[in-house]
Design brief:
Helix content: 40-55%
Mean pLDDT: 82
Low-confidence stretches: 275-283, 363-383, 385-390
Strand content: 5-15%
Oligomer: single chain
Distance between the termini: 47 Å
Radius of gyration: 22 Å
Length: 390
C-alpha cells in the first residue's frame, strides 16, 4: 500500500540524452498517446490538467514536463511508474494511467520515452486536486486493485504469427493501450478481459468495437483502416472526432510501418456478428411513416441534405461522404452522431473535413413543441444514463 520514496535528481539537460534515443522516444510517446491525456484544452503540451471523467469521479492528468512535473524523477522512478503504477514519492497511481498496459513496454521504449519527455520545454503548471468519491479517494486502496489486475512483465512474441502481427499486438495491446477505451469496464474500473475490444464509453462518446469492423455495412479494408489511423478520415466510414481525433494526429507522426502493423493486428481480431448486433439490426429498420421519422426527414433535408443528401453537389464532387455507410450513423446507439451534430467536427486547417455544429440541434431545443421530447433524451444518451422522459 506504501512504497519507498526514490531520491530526487537534478533534471538532466536535454543535450545529455542521445539524439537517436530522443527520436525513438518521440515515436514511443506518440504511439502511447501521452500528449492526448496530459495536455489540457488550450494548455501547453504535456503540462497536464486535463479532467478525466470516470464513474468514480474526476481525475486530472498530471504535469509530465520537467518543471516541476517529473523533473526530479530518475529513470528508475519513471520505470516504476510505468510498470508498477507507483509515483516517485511512493504513493499509488490511479489506473486511469494505463500502467496495466505500459507494464509490458521494453527497457528501450521506457528509456526512450524518458529521454524525450525530459527534453521537452519545462512548463510550471499545478494539477488540480482530484474529485473522487469516498473511499476511492484513499490512494492506498489501489494496491488491492493491482493485486487483481496488474500483471507485470514483457510479453513473448507468438511464433505462429508474422513479425508485423506481433509488432501490431505490442502497439495495440501494450503501448497503444487501445483496449482501455475500446473495452467495457467492470464495476471497479478494470477492462472486461472476456469482452476486450467490444467497445466502451469515454467522455460521452462511444469508442466503437474494434472486433466488428468486418461486420460493418461495408466491411473495413486494411487500406481504409490505415488511412483512418494516419489521417483521421476513411472513405465511406467517416472521420475521427474527439477523443479519437488527437490519437490520429499522433499516429500521423510515426513511421507507416507502425500503423500498418496496427491495422494487421486489429483486423485479425474480427468476430462473427454478435447476438446483440443481430438483434439490433433486426429491429433497426426505419419506419418512414412514424411521426419521429417524418420529423427527422424534415430536419435532415433542411440541415444535412445539402452536403450529405443523395445526389447533392458536395457528394457529386466527392468532398462530403454519404452517411449510408457511416460508422457513427450505423452504430448501436446514436451517441456519436448526436455529439457530432451538437459540437461539429473540424480537422485543424483542413477545411475539406469541416462540419459546423448542426442547426438541427438548435432547432430541436429551441422550439417549445420539440424541447420536451428531444432535449432530455439527448443528454441521457450522451451520459450513458437512462432518461427519465421518453
Amino acid at each position: 500500500m506504501w512504497k519507498p520514496r526514490i531520491a530526487a535528481v537534478q533534471p538532466a539537460p536535454a543535450s545529455s540524452f542521445d539524439r537517436q534515443l530522443k527520436l525513438d522516444g518521440a515515436r514511443v510517446v506518440a504511439l502511447g498517446d501521452c500528449a492526448v491525456c496530459h495536455t489540457a484544452k488550450g494548455g501547453k503540451p504535456f503540462a497536464g490538467g486535463l479532467p478525466l471523467a470516470t464513474p468514480f469521479g474526476t481525475i486530472y492528468a498530471t504535469n509530465i514536463t520537467s518543471d516541476p512535473g517529473i523533473g526530479a524523477w530518475s529513470l528508475d522512478a519513471f520505470t516504476r511508474a510505468l510498470r508498477r503504477g507507483i509515483s516517485r514519492d511512493g504513493h499509488q497511481l490511479y489506473p486511469t494511467f494505463p500502467y496495466i498496459h505500459f507494464t509490458r513496454m521494453s527497457d528501450h521504449e521506457v528509456s526512450a520515452a524518458y529521454a524525450y519527455l525530459m527534453s521537452r520545454d519545462p512548463v510550471k503548471a499545478t494539477t488540480p486536486d482530484n474529485k473522487l468519491i469516498f473511499p476511492l479517494n484513499f490512494r492506498p486502496l489501489v494496491a488491492f486493485w493491482k493485486v487483481m489486475f496488474l500483471r507485470p512483465g514483457e510479453r513473448a512474441a507468438d511464433p505462429a504469427q508474422s513479425v508485423e502481427w506481433n509488432r501490431g499486438r505490442l502497439l495495440v495491446d501494450d503501448l497503444g493501450h487501445c483496449a482501455a477505451c475500446h473495452s467495457p469496464l467492470n464495476m471497479i474500473g478494470d477492462e472486461k478481459s472476456r469482452r476486450a475490444f467490444d467497445g466502451g464509453l469515454l467522455d460521452g462518446w462511444d469508442a466503437p468495437p474494434l472486433n466488428q469492423l468486418s461486420n460493418a455495412v461495408k466491411p473495413w479494408t486494411k487500406e481504409q483502416l490505415v488511412t483512418y489511423l494516419c489521417t483521421g478520415r476513411a472513405s465511406e466510414h467517416g472521420a475521427a472526432a474527439s477523443p479519437m481525433l488527437p490519437v490520429t494526429r499522433d499516429l500521423a507522426t510515426v513511421p507507416q510501418e507502425d500503423v500498418e502493423a496496427i491495422g494487421t493486428y486489429i483486423l485479425s481480431l474480427q468476430h462473427a456478428t454478435s447476438p446483440v448486433m443481430e438483434a439490433t439490426a433486426a429491429t433497426a429498420t426505419p419506419d418512414a411513416t412514424t411521426a419521429s421519422a417524418q420529423r427527422g426527414a424534415i430536419l435532415f433535408n433542411g440541415s444535412c441534405a445539402s452536403c450529405h443528401g443523395s445526389g447533392s453537389p458536395m457528394q457529386t464532387i466527392g468532398t462530403r461522404p454519404t452517411l449510408a455507410f457511416s460508422t457513427a450513423v450505423n452504430a448501436q446507439t446514436p451517441r456519436n452522431t448526436i455529439q457530432i451534430m451538437i459540437g461539429g467536427a473540424w480537422h485543424g486547417e483542413d477545411t475539406m473535413n469541416y462540419m459546423s455544429p448542426s442547426a438541427m440541434y438548435s432547432v430541436t431545443t429551441s422550439l417549445p413543441i420539440l424541447r420536451p421530447t428531444c432535449a432530455p433524451p439527448i443528454q441521457s444518451v450522451l451520459s450513458g444514463r437512462p432518461s427519465t422522459k421518453a
